[in-house]
Specification:
With 311 residues, the chain is α/β, with parallel strands linked by helices. It has twelve helices and nine strands.
Length: 311
């Protein structure tokens, strides 16, 4: 059986959204792969742990572990207006999860809509990580769009040379073994002190360090799809039924759909929000998600979401 270690970094408030991601992994999982879920946080409540454990208990190839850490000198970590300190927790992965040779990091604002077991044995080609290009940042640089993230910042602060090297860090497979052997893990903390105000925070740190140490293997945007798409409930229902009937892939456009940006699908219902709620309705956290975001669906929407969640 293959082994795929997965890690999420979140606080207790955001844990319910990480649980939706975990649910989406379960629903698209490979029976011959063992998925070891690791949660890095400063605190996860007993209530949330119990709900998550209940969610995975009937799946023998899934486990979940909690790693509690304490950030010293939190003022050293630059944050913008809507990010929390938990975004920097990933720099502690290499010590806390050092017994693994590879670990897949996933943001908590995405959905896994196809099997991702290939991450368990994909070839690193001697690179420190595997990720997908950031289309947004690439467009900023190539088109020279007016933005704080300038070409000068890219070249002289991040010390990167090729626009095609900047990746989105929301989905990244770390080569733990190589990173530790080459002491790259310490370079992340050195970069936090050297790059005082990273515009895209820990993502900039990761890009700067890995582009100059170990390198990153870039794969298709299918595995970190960040473009908006009309994911209607009828389309989701057809895809779900097709999958239940034996289709190996739930859809052909993406494997991982990433809700980048400030507005999340649980905050404002958009054309792609149905995908999130398709999986959220399969979790024990749906009531909390709806109540905490004051979401009220029309009866027709509620019935449709409940119906598709059964597939």
């Amino acid at each position: 059986m293959k082994l795929l270690p997965i890690v999420f970094t979140c606080d207790d408030h955001y844990f319910k959204y990480a649980s939706v991601v975990i649910c989406s992994i379960i629903k698209n999982s490979d029976r011959n792969t063992k998925y070891e879920i690791n949660i890095l946080s400063e605190f996860i409540s007993d209530e949330n742990r119990a709900l998550a454990n209940k969610m995975i208990h009937s799946f023998s190839n899934f486990s979940i572990s909690y790693h509690i850490l304490k950030i010293e000198n939190p003022e050293e970590y630059h944050l913008n207006s809507y990010m929390s300190l938990s975004t920097y927790y990933r720099f502690f992965i290499f010590d806390l999860l050092k017994n693994y040779e590879r670990v897949l990091y996933l943001d908590s604002d995405l959905i896994v809509d196809n099997d991702i077991s290939f991450y368990a044995d994909i070839d690193f080609e001697n690179k420190a990580a595997i990720s997908s290009l950031s289309i947004y940042v690439q467009n900023l640089l190539i088109k020279n769009i007016k933005h704080d993230f300038t070409r000068d910042y890219f070249l002289n602060v991040l010390l990167m040379k090729d626009y095609n090297e900047y990746f989105n860090a929301g989905v990244i497979l770390f080569n733990i073994k190589l990173i530790r052997e080459q002491n790259i893990d310490q370079k992340f903390f050195d970069a936090i002190k050297a790059i005082k105000n990273p515009i895209f925070q820990d993502q900039d740190i990761l890009n700067s360090v890995l582009s100059n140490n170990g390198g990153v293997k870039l794969i298709s945007k299918e595995y970190n799809f960040t473009s908006g798409m009309k994911l209607t409930m009828p389309r989701l229902l057809v895809n779900a039924i097709s999958y239940q009937l034996g289709n190996k892939k739930r859809n052909k456009w993406f494997t991982i759909y990433h809700y980048v940006g400030k507005i999340k699908p649980w905050q404002q219902y958009n054309s792609d929000s149905s995908l999130f709620f398709y999986y959220a309705y399969k979790t024990l956290f749906i009531k909390d998600i709806l109540q905490s975001n004051k979401i009220v669906f029309k009866n027709s929407q509620k019935i449709k979401l409940w119906l598709i969640s059964k597939f």
